[in-house]
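ok trying this again, last paste got cut off
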Amino acid sequence: MPDSAQSAIKRDTAHARCVKVDAPETLASQLRQSRDVVHAAHAALSPYQLSLKAVSQGVEIHGDAPAVLVMQRWLEQIVDHWRASGTHEGLDASSLKAVINDALKRDLVLRLPGLPKPVRPLSVLQHAYIEALLEGTEPIIIASGPTGTGKTHLALAAGLSLLDTGKIRHMIVARPNVIEEGQTMTPELRLDRVYDEGFAGIEDELNDLIGPEEVRRLQQRRRLEVTPVGRLQGRNFADAFLIIDEAQNMNVRRTRMAVSRLGENSRMVLIGDPNHCELRNDGQSGFEHLLKMVEREDFARIIHFTVPDIIRNPVVAKLEALYVQDASSS
């Protein structure tokens, strides 16, 4: 696809759309009645919404724009095959996956203000996640799931872009301290107020996204702050985008403190993996507690990543699956 076509799609991908795919009536009838088509599409394109409607000489596709785009490409491919061979072979999940992968590489790439490089979601869920960060209205977004699914990287990318466009004035990235085995507990550590080597991963991501010079410039202008979560206490953040990384390592009391920092026109992203909680005799994980409390509230959006969503490295996905299997069996 030409760059101009990609550009036309790049920031309008999460809005509802309706398109018609013309098809011979015999094929259109089969497509409209095929439960396999609908099931495969819903499973592969979740959490985006999608529906098919019977119309004369074709099928109408309704739903969120990324899902409609993919479904349109898939059905057009099937129609082309039908016209060439008289069969609808290829109407299966593997061919749909190929269309999705092609769309992610071309049409669903995001060129965001403030970022020198395009953001390339590697899964439908990643695309839905960053769209929720950029376009959503919920004050609270919770990204839950295993390491390697892009939760932190995409949240940082979204925050930096929102900062560049002026939609927010401040971006705050915080994380709790984790007490390692054998490490001496100090009052500062207990209060999550130590800037330690645990922040290296966040620093690496920021440097990769905009470069170390721009990171320093934003920090010097007090527009970007990377801080231990304990240093949020007593503060109020207006016109801000707050990211709490490794949120599973906060207890209920610390989580309550963090979420209550939200001021006017601010949003907060809490990122965590419930299976990697490293709290030591400090009560229940506030991350899981919060997930259960807000799952039916309209002010919160929850994105659940799972082991198949790991994109860091195929080996990481296999290892995480083995750890999950081992934990459940023991």
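PB: full thing came through this time. Residues 1-13 have pLDDT under 50 and may be disordered.
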